[in-house]
Design brief:
- The chain is mainly α.
- The protein has a domain of 40 residues.
- The protein is 63% helix and 0% strand.
- Helix 1 runs antiparallel to helix 2.
- It is elongated.
Length: 59
């Protein structure tokens, strides 16, 4: 199940908050709203990491 909305991480502080929330939702029940939120957060973290890797490759 995927969330209907996308989470976007814009700053390091956002990243920290999302990481903390992922830890809170780690044991979300399958099919629950919490699991959908967790999947959206993990997707955002993946996009952030990919963006940071691409950006750091310029140096």
């Amino acid at each position: 199940m995927r969330a209907d909305h996308r989470v976007r991480i814009h700053t390091d502080d956002d990243h920290e908050r999302v990481t903390h929330r992922v830890d809170e939702l780690a044991n979300a029940a399958p099919g629950s709203r919490e699991e959908a939120e967790l999947m959206a957060l993990l997707d955002a973290l993946e996009r952030w990491d990919a963006h940071r890797d691409d950006w750091s490759g310029w140096f």
